[in-house]
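Practice problem: PBP superfamily domain protein
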Amino acid sequence: MYIDTALTPQEVADILKISKSTVYELIRRKEINSYRVGKKVRVDLKDVEAYKNKTKNIKTISNDFTNTSGIMTSNTVFQSKDTLEKYSFVISGQDAILDILCRYLACYEEGMRALRSYEGSYNGIYALYCGKVQAATAHMWDGETKEYNVPYIKKMLPGTPAVIIRLVGRMTGFYVAKGNPKRIKDWNDFRRQDITMINREKGSGTRILLDEHLRQMNILGNQIKGYSRECVSHLAVASIVARGGADLGMGNEKSCSQVDGVDFVPIKEEKYDMVIKKEDINKPSTKAIMDILSSEEFRMEIQGIGGYNISEMGKIIAET
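Answer key — structure tokens:
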């Protein structure tokens, strides 16, 4: 849960999985209650929940539920079976490079519109197992093997052969206040009693990385101040650290760079991969993804954003 109930427009956007501009439009149309603190707009968490409950019965496609790349999200509800079949390819994951991938898919040959499901790694892989998505991304670190993703995929997709495709490497680490006043530097700082953290939600790759390290260090979550408080995105974590709501959070470097008042302490490069069922490897959608990942144009666009290691992009790193 969030530390308090007063949310910024960006935090509302993170919760609803929409763009910040869409939040402002919803506020302008008085579909979400808001108020001002000086020149700053704030929204209470209870009003976000009220908006979510109010819109659960929507039956038609609405542009309100598209992100800044114009890609439909999993919040879109379809009225007809024909429409659902037309947009039946779903990619699970939260990284912004998936928005770019969806844009390239829309331009590929005859074009393919892909839905986005903004789930964390664990829930995304489970959705793949259940057949709710056709591709899932993950960055889950296993403390026993020191590997990313492969050990989890073998266990989470029983009887389901899968292909694991490398997308990018991303630097992950600690979010701390500007200037790092608490001198936070490594995992041992979680033992300190003067540190308050803000956590990611269960099932996210960042949460798994933290919990695996805590397990190896024999540290229980309830021994850490703020461990039970959760946010659903890197940006929300960084925002809370920036405004003094916590001393320490975790996330990737790219997201941290978008928030003023936060410094980044690098810990390790994580591997961000895409998982597809082997039975789907020869389908046009998978072929399109593989072609795009190996294309110079896509690789250069991702490299130009900064913060990503593209050296293994498109490589099949394992088959289970």
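Discussion: The chain has a mean pLDDT of 86. Students who identified this feature from the tokens alone can consider the problem solved.
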